[in-house]
Amino acid sequence: EDGYRLWQRYDQLQNKDLLKQYRQSLNGVVVQGSSPTLTVVKEELEMGMEGLLGSSITIANQLPKKASLVVGTPASSPIIKELGLEQKLKEVGQEGYLLLSQKHKGKNHTVIAANSDKGVLYGTFHFLRLLQTQQNIQALNISSSPKTKLRILNHWDNLDRTVERGYAGFSIWDWHKLPDYIDQRYIDYARANASIGINGTVLTNVNANSLVLTPEYLQKVKALADVFRPYGIKVYLTARFSSPIELGKLKTADPLDPAVKAWWKNKVNEIYTYIPDFGGFTVKANSEGQPGPQNYNRSHADGANMLAEVLAPKGGIVMWRAFVYDNNVPDDRHKQAYTEFKPLDGTFQGNVMVQVKNGAIDFQPREPFHPLFGAMPKTPLMMEFQITQEYLGQGTHLAYLAPMFKETLTADTYAKGKGSTVAKVVDGSLDNHAISGMAGVANIGNDINWTSHPFGQANWYAFGRLAWDHELTSEGIADEWIKMTFSSAPSSQAAIRTMMMGSREAVVNYMTPMGLHHLMGWSHHYGPGPWIKDKPRADWTSVYYHRADEKGLGFDRTKTGSNALSQYAPEVQAQWGNPTTCPEEVLLWFHHVAWDAKTKSGRTLWDELCYRYSGGVDSVRAMQKTWNSLEGQIDKERHQQVKQYLAIQEKDARWWRDACLLYFQTFSKRPIPQELEKPQGTLEQFMKIEPKFAPGI
Ligand SMILES: CO[C@H]1[C@H](O)[C@@H](O)[C@H](O)O[C@@H]1C(=O)O
């Protein structure tokens, strides 16, 4: 193996019949026209087809006599124009594309056509994926366009190259060597992202450092933007709200102060001299100690609009985060974002998007959808998912996240009656928004395989695919990724898919089953810490979230408790407000349930909890068994890697199960059912375990 490889492996296909078919239909490749994007299209076609087909190809400017691959836009390619695809192309928009088997002058050609070079690029990657996943290309009739306009990675990367909540080494942005040294990884990063339709990247941590806005750093940012541009990827930065004070030496960062606004206007103009297509800012304000407009008694809208106004003439946007909790500890942190943002609906400028995490607390293994979705019809709401597994085992646990992303996207907000899914809020179709977006907090770093756990790559891949088309299935995305990533082992496809599909639920079960949440260890968030209390803020403890007592377990968020449920539509309230109709997956999120209450299995809550925790451990063991059975079918190196990670996961799953059950047992005072494995160790022992070298704190 030479260095790293992502899913674009392009190894020669082994299926002889298929190879023959491909070679017969792809005698030549014609790309007419020239642009930086068409240049990378040609490079990718050469690399991909030569690798997959095992024969060299030349890219021609004229149509050869035999069946060929014809690539381009009607504007740049006379052959594409001759094909008369105007009507079909109208439907795919600026980023979409067509993949067609098309007769032209008696020959059967394969066509990648689009309205823009960027669309051609996306079509090219789709076409290469068809070959890589060994699809029949004889009668292609594919048209595809993205459902979400902005598909963007958020890097929580600091300028010293540490990555907040990053578990795959240090930041890939080598600020020290930029702008003079362009690491090959930047190019491969762009290729990988473009291959899944990602069209934007926020380079820096939301806990922002204003230094990135200085000329010295803007030159470095420009160098990255220049690399990414041909791949259709725009660069964005995080804007520290107090930058006018830190960099501009102003006395205030009050968004309504004319000097502050003038400072930002100059700064934005300056940025555009370096990066003419700069995307805009992501802002975390008045949350976890970050400065913001509330420091000056102004609202989030005042802050966002001030930046939006200076960005608008340049075509830039503001992604203002709704992950806010600050000031006084609320009676229920679940409610804070909604309380602060809902009243601001309709007051944001047209180029502001409010970026909302999938759930109201913080990227837990399972959260009900965030109540802001559906509650701010006049504001485009952007989805923020976390690809990095801060709360799901970080760099060592296998957890395929597509089912988690889909769970939120398919949830029904009932905002405009049945069928008002979160996906429709986010893609803008429910409320007819001109802009829409999905952000994923990246899980990559400078580890050789980019993501620490080899299966972490699947989560990056799945995020991009779902941002393009949220209707894709988790299984389908897994299949694509497996075929591309473990191309040498077609027979193991089903087994790997089964592992992936059950993996996130396994994590939920051994960490936080039945709606439990935020039981993770203090600050590092890796192992169990349900006992955590007495911290500077009540909502930084675990006891705040699980509320275990002699009577039972869970956070009462109904009318008799915090009433966070009132933030949802009446239909949702009706279902979740009643413990007998509330799905067990989120039961303890909304209800304080008696230890002896009957659950759907017929068991008491306590027994059911014991079964779920044990089931989580069993699922990991099942994954181990499956993986062991694949030995010999997968290259040694990756087989060994995953095998070792699964052993860690199994050990950690037991740690979670035993620590949580022993702790909750001090309240339930009931025995763990006979037939289940007994905890190995005492609660006191578990409470002493502190990972001293947890990464990314
Ligand atoms: C970037 O800060 C993070 C913080 O590390 C993390 O623990 C929490 O999940 O969320 C914060 C946020 O999303 O702003």
TrEMBL record:
Its EC number is 3.2.1.131. Residues 131-450 form the Glycosyl hydrolase family 67 catalytic domain. SUPFAM superfamilies: (Trans)glycosidases (SSF51445), beta-N-acetylhexosaminidase-like domain (SSF55545). Residues 451-675 form the Glycosyl hydrolase family 67 C-terminal domain. Keywords: Carbohydrate metabolism, Glycosidase, Hydrolase, Polysaccharide degradation, Signal, Xylan degradation. It is an enzyme of class 3 (hydrolase). It catalyses: Hydrolysis of (1->2)-alpha-D-(4-O-methyl)glucuronosyl links in the main chain of hardwood xylans. Transmembrane segments: none annotated. It comes from the Bacteria. Residues 6-127 form the Alpha glucuronidase N-terminal domain. Homodimer. PANTHER family: ALPHA-GLUCURONIDASE A. Belongs to the glycosyl hydrolase 67 family. This is Xylan alpha-1,2-glucuronidase. The lineage of its organism: Bacteria, Pseudomonadati, Bacteroidota, Cytophagia, Cytophagales.
